[in-house]
Amino acid sequence: MISASVSSLEYKLHWEVPASNASTSFNDWASDKRFQVGDIIRFKYKKDSVMQVTKEGYKQCNSSHPRFFSNTGKTRFMFDHSAPYYFISGTSGHCEKGQKMIVEVISNDRTTTSSAISVTMAGWFCFFCFTLFIVA
User: Fold this and answer.
1) Which of 68, 15, 13, 5 is nearest to 38 (CA)?
2) Using one digit for the tens of pLDDT, what is the confidence trace for 30-83?
3) Half-sphere CA count of 46, side-chain side, radius 13 A
4) Residues in contact with 20: Cβ distance below 8 Å, sequence separation at least 6, in sequence order
């Protein structure tokens, strides 16, 4: 049996209103990552806030009932379960200008299929070498 330790990752994000001519969004940034349970996003911002909201709160840019709120300028948010997380700015008008993000968090199994295949292939290779040694 093979066991491996799982470590969390910390992602840094400059949380600010995107430029009107920005070619990427916060969702583009988030979808490029594989967030897992235990991972952390460190939001860095000035004169703003970050809120975790419901899906509806995200769609409507509604900041009246956040699940999480911080306005410290350096917020660390750890994902404690697998689910989509919805973030918006709590500053009036910022969410409507694109300062919002959906993060999909998956289970915390960091083993990849390729590494599992490599271990399996190495096992078969050793078995094959041993068999050739006995036959020869």
Assistant:
1) 5
2) 999 999 999 999 999 999 999 999 999 999 999 999 999 999 999 999 999 999
3) 0
4) 97
